[in-house]
Amino acid sequence: MVNPMDSSSPMSTAPSAPSSPSAPADLDTPELVLTLAGLLQARGWMLATAESCTGGLIGAACTEVAGSSAWFERGFITYSNEAKTELLGVDAAVIAAHGAVSEPVARAMATGAVARSAPARVALAVTGVAGPTGGTPDKPVGTVWFGWSVDGAVRTERRRFDGDRATVRAATVLHALHTLVELLGR
Fold first, then answer.
1. Residues 61, 16, 100, 87: is their CA dihedral positive or negative?
2. DSSP state of 163
3. Distance in angstroms (rounded) separating the CA atoms of residues 107 and 146
4. What are the φ/ψ torsions at residue 120 (nearest 5 degrees)?
5. Which residue, 13, 49, 62, 119, could crosslink 75 as a Cys pair with Cβ 3.0–4.6 Å?
6. CA dist 36 to 97, 135, 164, Å?
7. Is 73 helix (H, G, I), strand (E, B) or coil?
8. Are strands 122-128 and 72-77 parallel, antiparallel or unpaired?
9. What is the rounded CA–CA span in Å between residue 59 and residue 75?
10. pLDDT in tens, the chain (186 residues)
């Protein structure tokens, strides 16, 4: 699933955790969501999501669980650059300078999701190239930038997943949730 030639970039800020190439084989999305729900509820925290390449799949996975309104605050589907700017406050100049699929944009999406989702204290953001078109030499199909904001600390990471569009999107959902579980489980 993950291209070992393009592992994660250095972590931008704390909290940092060891990167994982993908979610553990023994955990599927529903199990990750149940684990995430327990971790958030134990702290009394709410989650917001900011999704581009997954188009709401992470929010859908979270709200598939009955009672998710106790820990899932809202989800932003910001597929276009304009949506990232209007809904999350991502600076258009940052998008112009770095592209939508970049560390600064993933960071801004995560921080914007928390800022615009009171009382959320946790957010995860994804922006990437799911394919089959849209890739470039610098950002080939399968490139995804992740951003997680946990109680004010932001972590970003780049991954490249192999496979078709559905595979890239599914791997993105799993990795986003798995890493958030790791960050909250500390």
1. positive
2. S
3. 8
4. -60, 135
5. 49
6. 34, 32, 27
7. strand
8. unpaired
9. 6
10. 444 333 333 333 333 333 333 434 446 899 999 999 999 999 999 999 999 999 999 999 999 999 999 999 999 999 999 999 999 999 999 999 999 999 999 999 999 999 999 999 999 999 999 999 999 999 999 999 999 999 999 999 999 999 999 999 999 999 999 999 999 997
